[in-house]
Amino acid sequence: MGPLPVSAEEIHPSLWRASQLARGRLRTVDTGYPALSAELPGGGWPVGGLVDLLVENSGIGEMRLLRPALNAIGDRSIALVEPPHTPNAQGLQHIGVSPNRVLLARSSTLTDTLWCVEQILRAGCFGALVVWLSHVQASSLRRLHLAAQSSETLFVMVRPVYAARDASPATLRLSVRPSCDGLMVDIVKRSGPVLTEALPIALQPTPVLLSQRGQTVRSLHRVQIAKLTEELAAPLQQ
């Protein structure tokens, strides 16, 4: 009998020991927060899979938390689907995101929203996709997670914190709540040991990003779901 492998990854890249973070061949984007990155498999936000961001209330800092990652993807487009309020162009520019890179999509039904998200993932031309949803069936989550696996897109779904008690195929699940100088982050699910302590993440103050009073500039590309088909179909037909 030969010597036993020194790590689970030597048996298969997708395996890991329960006492340690998964390493393997993970595709990640740096979070920009060393304390958070150190607790995530691969040292960053996973790319090509569903990330659950569970919040007490929308607009508590989820966009600022994603700020370094949105900058790290370079000039690739960013899709914002069903944000609770209209994104503020000044706020986007303040965190280094040009409104020219942003696609804003809204719909009147959940079915259309899920269709839109899946098409964006399959198009393969977006560096990041952030969607705000409340109630999503497990079958829909699995379908979107599967679509994300064939992409190079950072796929984040912002949902209410009570969704933490529901099963999810997400690669990573974080619960965030506001604190004095930023956010407290609880890791609900990761490929690794359970983390019982919340991580304090300091966020820099910034103009309002998501506000009912926020105004957009003309360069913010806003579309309705019904008009999105041609834009997403074009790169697929090339």
Compile the SSE list and pairings.
Blueprint: E1 28-29, H1 34-37, E2 45-46, E3 49-55, H2 62-72, E4 77-81, H3 89-94, E5 102-106, H4 110-123, E6 126-132, H5 138-149, E7 154-160, E8 172-179, E9 182-189, E10 199-202, E11 221-224, H6 229-237
Parallel strand pairs: 3-7, 3-8, 4-5, 4-6, 5-11, 6-7
Antiparallel strand pairs: 1-2, 8-9, 9-10
Instruction: Give the overall average pLDDT.
Output: 82
Order of neighbouring strands in the sheet with most strands: 10-9-8-3-7-6-4-5-11
Largest sheet: 9 strands, mixed
Unreliable segments (pLDDT under 50, ≥5 consecutive)? 214-219
CATH class, anyone? Alpha Beta
Given the C-alpha coordinates, what overall shape results? Answer: globular
C-alpha termini separation: 53 Å
- Give the CATH architecture: 3-Layer(aba) Sandwich
Percentage of residues assigned to helices: 10-25%
CATH topology, by name, is: Rossmann fold
Report the sheet-strand fraction.
15-25%
Estimated structural class: alpha/beta
Q: Which homologous superfamily in CATH is the superfamily?
A: P-loop containing nucleotide triphosphate hydrolases
Number of self-contained structural domains: 1
Quaternary status: single chain
Write down the Rg.
Answer: 18 Å
Number of strands: 11
Could you explain how this protein is built, in words?
The chain is α/β, with parallel strands linked by helices and 238 residues long. It has a single domain (28-208, 218-237), classed as Rossmann fold. The protein has helices at residues 34-37, 62-72, 89-94, 110-123, 138-149, 229-237; strands spanning 28-29, 45-46, 49-55, 77-81, 102-106, 126-132, 154-160, 172-179, 182-189, 199-202, 221-224. The chain has a 9-stranded mixed beta sheet, with helices on both faces. Helix 4 runs parallel beside helix 5 (138-149) and helix 4 packs parallel to helix 6 (229-237). The protein starts with 27 loop residues before the first strand and ends with a helix. Mean pLDDT is 82; it is low at 214-219.
